[in-house]
Amino acid sequence: MSMTSAHGPQRIVCLTEETTEWLYLLGQEHRIVGISGYTVRPRRAREEKPKVSAFLSAKIDKILALRPDHVFGFSDLQADIAAALIRAGVPVTMFNQRSVDEIFAMLWQVAALVGCTDRAEAWLAERRQRLDAMRAEVASWQAEGRRRPRVFFEEWDEPHISGIRWVSELLGVAGGDDVFPELAAMPMGRDRIIADGAEIVRRAPDIVIGSWCGKKFRPEKVAARPGWAEVPAVRDGQLFEIKSADILQPGPAALTDGVEQLHRLVADWMVRHG
Fold this sequence. Notes:
Elements: E1 12-14, H1 17-25, E2 32-36, H2 43-48, E3 51-53, H3 60-65, E4 70-74, H4 79-87, E5 92-95, H5 100-113, H6 117-143, E6 150-154, E7 156-157, E8 160-161, H7 165-174, E9 177-178, E10 193-194, H8 197-202, E11 207-210, H9 219-223, H10 232-235, E12 239-241, H11 244-247, H12 252-272
Parallel strand pairs: 1-2, 1-4, 2-3, 4-5, 6-9, 6-11, 11-12
Antiparallel strand pairs: 7-8, 8-10
Helix pairs in contact: 5-6, 6-12, 7-12
């Protein structure tokens, strides 16, 4: 049974976008007193809430002035921010979700903290059903003899970085095969650097998807890379962008707009190459 919504923290600072978007979806945005400056989902949050952090840094004094009774953050990269706040006596929860299952678990935990588990469970169940429907659709196409496309997802271009785990998993759900599946086991970006660009060419992706951490994806720049002219994705014009806010956010965005975009790109390829 859910706790009443009056329970739990009332003055929350969200150091990353996913918890902000989730609290808005739960109808609990009144609890948020500060957000990340990188927040774009939902758009209204930028207009309504003070921006108190970047990703690797935060305005500790400004956060403390907001008198938060809880701070939500993400990953080891925000450990120093968390430590400073904890030393100042602020309750802090740092999530480190990397897989799709961990994203679902994080969302449920946040909902529990603000007493909205019933609403959250309905939303999460709907998203799980949608992912299952995607898997079933892809399976039906494969039963018709259609091939799954090989996909290279590039989250940064210089150097090449790929393999972020939840993206790799969602790509699989959407019907594509990650050309660097081994990198999904590496949680740190520095361990997912592809030093030899020629290896990407050798793996011959059918689709290239760029999401350059907020920097605009440049398909013409990708196509002009040395040796890439015969890469199937370049040859067939299959170079696409998914905005980082839609897919690199390990929260509601990845489970909605992110995976839906992946599925549309893969579905279009499978239909045309059946």
